[in-house]
Amino acid sequence: MTKISSNDQTNPVFNPAKFIQKERTTSKLKIDQINTFLESTPERRDLTHRLIREITNDRVLETDTSYYDLNKSQQREITANKIARLALYMEHDIKTARNNFENKNLIQDLQKNNGNEPLLQSSDFTIFDKRLSLIANIDPQLSTRVGVHLGLFGNCIKGNGTDEQITYWLQERGAAMMRGIYGCFAMTELGHGSNVGQLQTTAIFNESNNTFTINTPNLTATKWWIGGAAHSATHSVVYARLIIKGKDYGVKTFVVPLRNTKTFQLETGVVIGDIGAKMGRDGIDNGWIQFNDVVIPKENMLCRFIQVTNNGNGDVKVKVQPQLDQISGYSALLSGRVNMVMDSFRFGAKFATIATRYAVGRQQFAPQTKDGKNSNQEEVQLINYPLHQYRIIPQLALVYLISPVAFKLMDTYYKTLDELYHVSTAKDNDALVIVSAKLKNLFISSASLKATNTWFVAQLIDELRQTCGGHGYSQYNAFGKGYNDWVVQCTWEGDNTVLSLTSAKSILKKFGDAAQKGKFDSNLDGDEFGYLDPSFIAEVYTNQVTADINDDSDLESFIQVWAILLVKSLVHIGKVLKKNNDINSLSKLLVQISRFHAIYLMLKTFHEKLENEKESYITDDNTKATMWNIFRLFSVYYIDKYSGEFLQLKLFKADDISNVIQPKLFKLMALIRTDCIALSDAFELPDNMLNAPIGFFDGDIYHNYFNEVVKNNPQETNGAGIPPYYMALTSMLSRE
Amino acid sequence: MTKISSNDQTNPVFNPAKFIQKERTTSKLKIDQINTFLESTPERRDLTHRLIREITNDRVLETDTSYYDLNKSQQREITANKIARLALYMEHDIKTARNNFENKNLIQDLQKNNGNEPLLQSSDFTIFDKRLSLIANIDPQLSTRVGVHLGLFGNCIKGNGTDEQITYWLQERGAAMMRGIYGCFAMTELGHGSNVGQLQTTAIFNESNNTFTINTPNLTATKWWIGGAAHSATHSVVYARLIIKGKDYGVKTFVVPLRNTKTFQLETGVVIGDIGAKMGRDGIDNGWIQFNDVVIPKENMLCRFIQVTNNGNGDVKVKVQPQLDQISGYSALLSGRVNMVMDSFRFGAKFATIATRYAVGRQQFAPQTKDGKNSNQEEVQLINYPLHQYRIIPQLALVYLISPVAFKLMDTYYKTLDELYHVSTAKDNDALVIVSAKLKNLFISSASLKATNTWFVAQLIDELRQTCGGHGYSQYNAFGKGYNDWVVQCTWEGDNTVLSLTSAKSILKKFGDAAQKGKFDSNLDGDEFGYLDPSFIAEVYTNQVTADINDDSDLESFIQVWAILLVKSLVHIGKVLKKNNDINSLSKLLVQISRFHAIYLMLKTFHEKLENEKESYITDDNTKATMWNIFRLFSVYYIDKYSGEFLQLKLFKADDISNVIQPKLFKLMALIRTDCIALSDAFELPDNMLNAPIGFFDGDIYHNYFNEVVKNNPQETNGAGIPPYYMALTSMLSRE
Questions:
Q1: Distance (Å, rounded) from C-alpha A710 to C-alpha A64?
Q2: What ipTM describes this predicted complex?
Q3: Where is the Acyl-CoA oxidase/dehydrogenase middle domain (chains A, B) (predicted)?
Q4: How many CB atoms within 10 Å of residue B313?
Q5: If pLDDT is split at 50, 70 and 90, which confidence band does B376 have?
Q6: Do residues A185 and A148 touch, judged by C-beta distance below 8 A?
Q7: Is the pLDDT of residue B67 over 60?
Q8: pLDDT higher than 90, residue B403
Q9: Interchain CB distance below 8 Å, B87 and A725
């Protein structure tokens, strides 16, 4: 219902809700089955639904369109209040995960490290981690601000601390339960971001009293962008150069207190400032930190992989475990990257839902008559224009393709980290080699998937905003803040370009080993890097396999075409490299390798899941057929998008693109279009997760949108619309 | 100098200023000549510099980094104060343009329509229009908010009103001089944007008393997005359906008073609300309007092309001049489109300057040793990585290519509109046919250039922000608000997709006439549509001309390749259309046609200007050579970007892309890279126009940036950094 009763509401020109409802009645898709597919398993699906219900029904955590009008200070304060609320949910979630509500003091007992309770495990956080991941979709700055503490600070300690240090900081001091201390992650500096190895902050060992002195030696060494530093952190993990007797051992990690945990006063020697306004996520209190002779005890160096021993006679020994020392330094970032692939799925789902509903409900231009004039017929729904389908449907398909790979990556991450933890505790060196190799693969694929999907979703938000015309530019329809909050994902926790290059260089190295030395471990690499199997490379070389997607029933051909592209691209790079030996000159192609690898992985993982009913939970044939069309569309859309590369490397002939690829693309889009409302409904995002009235479920676009605008901008009842600063205007207009 | 003295500033790790200064001493480019080229002529260049000086030195108009911290209410009030200030500059500018400072009452005399002064001419506004255009680059919401009144409201009256109406509203009532009344432009409605013909607001003629009654018949007919409506407009031009005796004559324009010009109270029957928060440009008070039986006199219908006469005996006659009636309806938007191409140049210049300086000053990663490790050498400047050159240099080239076409389009616009005005006054029907054709061409090219360049510059801002890493995400470095303010240009005053389709369809029609009927008017179309010359089309058909850019000295070949692509694309579209007769199915290709047409025009206009020393003002050979390299690079960059299309249409062979195009691309980038600081200096944008410390002229990136952050976020001197809401945090951390 509109708030404005002065107009006749009985006979509106448009009835978008009617169109949207009609699509729901005509679609035969089994939405529940699809939702289970997208949420990975029935158990995880149920948990997702339960948590979304709790998040959207909690009066502290809920977010509505008034959110888009908050200024920076308001955002920060509200975010802090929400964090305090989340701390309570966390206790609840740990109890639920342990199925232990009888011990009313469970959290206190854990913190006291009471022997009656087993130590905190990662399984204790399964529910809360998911809660945080879902919150990222409605209030990203909130989940980041918590994530800095739990994810970055916490994981840095878990990845680099000894068991004792982990227990002390996370459990006894309470950090893991958001009690006692609140942490931040002081890695980047004003002058150094991606190049962690060259950070300039120093940690000088004082032999005489077993302490470290932390210093910021120059302006560019100022810790910069540190989330939580400006207002909320009591402690920080600081990346600093370990210097002992003048020798530089490289960058290590140290826990440094920043503020008194009771009064929040800064510790002496610590200088902190506010980074201020950002493009998005202003609810996070990013700050800068300078250290002036800050002294910390020796125990505050995280020393799982490096130990400093001081016998007191000027004899200081340093022991480093080189295999893991370097990787572990970055492992805190790994969790973020893995989470960002999941975020890509959820952010994509949100904006795809909004734009699809708007495209179905919005009408524009009557059909043209033969002489090119507009007829008097009813205006056409946007979604019925092929160009509009081209702008919407492939983005919807993209979101579908991200989900399986996001869940798989998350599972692999937890499994590998657990393995690493156990192997490094057991000090089993053979096992260590294997887990290092697995960790390396995880680095490659998470980097490639993070970079590719955060870029794809940035484009998705931008493109879909434009499909909503002017209404997409209103803050109340979520795109503006959504985009601003999103795009930092392309930069932080590994700049996308740097990550793409790193992962592509590793793939190139693997390719060299496989093609030249026949080295390929199918147990280790068979799954993610199947295209590097030497026998497949040989088949590509000898044209025994060729790109061919004519046969729709040959589903694997839609993956294979990317495998061939990858091999041919790698061969091409190898050839050029032989000539000029300058890897930098090839970096534009390397970024593409990372992208193609991600596309390949996404297709492969989706295919694996959907072809197995036990994994896909999709038993309905019609639904399955549509899901396969989405799979095909994704492949075909990107073939067309990268047709330059496909043609350059001669996977296709010039005419194939317009005769085969593009007709298939438009045919698939038209097929999927008939179910597009059902496919976006299948994300099962309630209105208060979307927080965009033009995308609300009931499809009553204009009333919903109008009402939210009026709610947030109430008309002045007295004064009849006189603006507060009208004197500036009247004196201008009446000036002599 | 940094504000933080606790750190040793004497020996910083990095010295970005040194690098940037060094490039200035080594470059041999004649920056002044380039600046004259970019600013069109020496006279225009001098005016630009003078106006920029005035804008940046006026304490009311100046904008610094504190701008990025303003909330919506502050932005709106400050913008209103700036408008009042601009009104004074406008008087000054009119006097300057008339070279008449003796008549102290010039503005009052003009308003009184005093016969001693000639009527206001468009030449009176040359200086002020330029002032506004330059303001758009530092404070876009200010220029838009003024532009709504002068550009949209004013141009609508100029385009649709009779001479008497123009004189009355713009001169006697004072609108043209920002006195007496302030206008807004009520075209779009909640339910209709691009489809102007279907707007729903009604204007019903009352025969008995010669008035119109304006009504909003339903919610979707609510005027929506109306800039200036929420707070500042006293009057509006309203697009409404003219209804006489129940007959609908389509959408016409009416001047409707909204507020009392003294008290600013709303007129009776007018309901106005605030649209609220937007993705960007919150300084503009966009509003919505509903009309409830608002009565206006007959004279308030703008009637240059439509007249309603009422003899009082129930005999009402309507006379329409069909040739111009429709075009004129949109002509108010034309000025905006033309201005947006100029904005593309200036916005592009701003962000290219910031990113280029940062890329030269910022260092990242030491060179790698042979075994792939980082060496101990100094870290490499970002700009020296080929991939970084690929991200920066083509964007710089893009800006260079926009400038000549932007100035030419602006000149054509003024010339054509003047012609239209004179011809329609003289009622010369033959001349009217010619000017209509010219106007149509102006519609095609302005649509194609507006859509293409606003899209390109949106990508430019996004891509260049990413090249600045995290620092690009700080609001204080201009990219965030810059992007948010910019992207609405892709939607308003003609949605880019709709404009691309419209212009491409017109090109396709011209192509049909040329190819099938040999119809081609070289006087009219020879310049902008040279590729449609039937003899050229025949040469492409018979392969007498082929794409070939091997010879760098054959400058025209870099344009011709796009001419061939256009013809081949049009032939392809024609073929498909013959088969399926469904233009909608080809819309993806049509968008490309519009884009290719814009690229062709940009190359052609740049070439025309640079090859003629009298027009280019570039006499230095070395400078000219670099300018030609920029021209080549632009062509080659987009060939590579659209290699899919070039290969599909067989302009090149698959190997040409990697053997010819890409090596040429990287070679050109490396050449231009050596002068990249000079080329960005040549935009001559002072620091307070850039308003982004990482891009300031002196190149002292880190100090400048640090100081602006601290200035806007002063550290609390007492309380030692305790956040205002710390109780929420301490009570969470100490909870039981």
A1: 14
A2: 0.96
A3: 184-294
A4: 7
A5: confident
A6: yes
A7: yes
A8: yes
A9: no
One-letter amino acid at A284 equals I
What does DSSP assign to residue A170?
Answer: I
What is the distance in angstroms between the Cα of A523 and the nearest Cα belonging to chain B? 27
Among B residues 573-602, those touching chain A with beta carbons less than 8 Å apart = 584-585, 587-588, 591
Pairing between strand B211-215 and A316-320? Answer: unpaired
Residue with tokens 């701390």: A87
Write down all domains in chain B, each with its CATH number in brackets: 32-177 (1.10.540.10), 183-325 (2.40.110.10), 327-681 (1.20.140.10)
- Catalytic residue positions of B? 493
Give the per-residue pLDDT at B5: 36
For residues B346 and B348, give the distance between their C-alpha atoms in angstroms, rounded to a whole number: 5
Which residues of chain B lie closer than 8 angstroms to A12, CB-CB?
218-220
Cβ–Cβ contact B710 with A under 8 A? yes
Element (H, E) at A63: none
User: Which sequence positions of A are flagged as catalytic?
Assistant: 493
Averaged pLDDT of chain B? 93
| Count of pairs with CB atoms under 8 A, one residue in A, one in B | 442
Residue B332 has pLDDT above 60, yes or no: yes
Structure tokens of B163?
């001479």
**For chain B, percent helix, then strand, then coil, each to nearest 5?**
60, 10, 30
- Cβ–Cβ contacts within 10 Å for residue B223, how many? 26
What confidence tens digit (pLDDT) does each residue in A510-524 have? 999 999 999 999 999
Q: What per-residue confidence (pLDDT) applies to B342? A: 98
Kindly state the DSSP code that residue A691 receives in the 8-state scheme.
-
Asked if A288's CB is within 8 angstroms of B733's CB, the reply is no
The Cα–Cα gap between B680 and B84 comes to 33
Look up residue A152 and give its DSSP letter: I
Of A424-428, B10-14, B218-222, the least confident: B10-14
User: Contact A264/B726, CB-based, under 8 Å?
Assistant: yes
Instruction: Determine which helix (DSSP H) or strand (DSSP E) holds A288, and give its type and residue range.
Output: strand A287-291
Are A732 and B178 inside 8 Å of each other by CB?
yes
Instruction: Give me the half-sphere count of Cα atoms (radius 13 Å) on the Cβ side of residue B638.
Output: 25
Residues of B in contact with A385 (CB under 8 A): 584, 587
Residue ranges at the known binding site of B for FAD: 188, 227
Burial string for B24-61 (b: 16+ CB within 10 Å, else e) reads: eeebebbbebbbbbbbbeeeebebbeebbeebbeeeeb
A207: pLDDT strictly greater than 80: yes
**pLDDT tens profile B220-230:** 999 999 999 99
Using the predicted structure, report yes or no on whether residue B10 has a pLDDT greater than 60: no
In A, which residues are within 8 Å of B141 by CB distance?
none
Residues from chain A that touch B463, judged by Cβ atoms under 8 A, are: none
The confidence score (pLDDT) of residue A327 equals: 62
**Joined tokens for residue A90:** 């966390």
Q: Which of residues 346-365 of B touch A (CB under 8 A)?
A: 364-365
Alpha carbon of A658: minimum distance to chain B alpha carbons (Å): 7
DSSP state of B150: I
Mode of pairing for the β-strands spanning B287-291 and B223-226: antiparallel
DSSP class of residue A67 equals G
